[in-house]
């Protein structure tokens, strides 16, 4: 007899007709995430996803940690299994919830009974266990209307369960439920956070990194892959597209006016990301841009940049303060990797005096000497794809 894990669905419960498809997505994400921890049976009953170990080899502690990062889950809890006997249920509740009972001032017991052969009704079981708990913990009073603590009991086919306390889940919506996007992932602090936030809203991520070897080092690429690896904890499996960017940057350096280097380079990022979006059925792009942070993130510069994209360019961090972004980066575990000192392609050939308010027609004129289509095609043909699980 073993414990189980319970996941309360988040926003999915507000969905109408397509709710079932969100649930199916969530369950398949849960199954995939739990693979390293053993064989589990995963199913949904009344907006709760049940995770039951199928044998004794399951790592329940590992699984419990893992489910806390799955988007689409409002809260998680464990439930202790015991014999389907009223006294065994009481003993289990007494031990399993001792700390919670000691901390609360009022409680009630709620029971569910899916095994109809169990000799007591739900109400009888609640009254029986509630009475004994009240004797055992005399400081806490029964309050059926507004209790601080609800002791949940369930009598199911193979066992009875006492639910533990609810812990906050990852929130958001199941990854994949809201389509796919290309996410431009640099090695900085911002883009891992924007990627995380997009995934949290149920979006499946195709990360793209522009790599300018040897101007940026092999370590810079390893760093991005490490960031992506950390993000798999939230996003699931990721296929990172590494785009060779050296030739494009050299061409810009050699043929364009220096003050437009950055905006022209970023326009190439958009064109190539658009191609990757088309190949992967993505309906948008995500960047870590943040209004006013650097010269390329003024409204004018962003307008000149995104003129090269057909799909919308979404910027989850546009109005965040740096401090708020850093807080999330720390929480999700990307910060320490992001601050490793390897340079990004954006810092190669940076102009001394970049145009902060470039006009689109001036930018278009500045890039006229370039074989734009040829350069984009060459980069797309030489993409390296790395799968992270
Ligand atoms: P970050 O901390 O994410 O690097 P940043 O503040 O350094 O952001 P920029 O370097 O101007 O800002 O980049 C803005 C956005 O452009 C990044 O958040 C990212 O989405 C994208 N980007 C920049 N460099 C790259 C790159 N080498 N590969 C992929 N995307 C990039
Ligand atoms: Mg950067």
CATH superfamily of the largest domain, by name, is HUPs
What percentage of residues falls in helices of 4 or more residues? Answer: 25-40%
**Number of structurally distinct domains:** 2
Give a count of the beta strands, DSSP E runs of length 2 or more: 15
**Order of SSEs, N→C?**
EHEEHEHHEHEEEEEHEHEHHEHEHHHHE
Which structural class best describes the helix and strand composition?
alpha/beta
Total helical elements: 14
The CATH class of the largest domain: Alpha Beta
- The CA-CA distance between the termini, in Å, is 31 Å
Radius of gyration: 27 Å
Top keywords for this entry?
single chain; VC0802-like; 9-stranded mixed β-sheet; 14 helices; 6-stranded mixed β-sheet; binds magnesium ion; Rossmann fold; binds adenosine-5'-triphosphate; 389 residues; alpha/beta
Briefly, what is this?
This protein is of the alpha/beta class.
Characterize the structure shown.
- Helices cover 40% and strands 22% of the residues.
- It is α/β, with parallel strands linked by helices and 389 residues long.
- It folds into two domains: 2-170, 2-Layer Sandwich (VC0802-like); 180-388, HUPs (Rossmann fold).
- The strands form two sheets. Strands 1, 2, 3, 4, 5, 6, 7, 8 and 9 form a nine-stranded mixed beta sheet that branches. Strands 14-13-10-11-12-15 form a six-stranded mixed beta sheet, sandwiched between helices.
- The relative contact order is 0.12.
- The mean pLDDT is 94.
- The chain binds adenosine-5'-triphosphate (ATP) and magnesium ion (MG).
- Adenosine-5'-triphosphate is lined by residues 184-186, 188-191, 208-210, 287-289, 293-294, 296, 344-346.
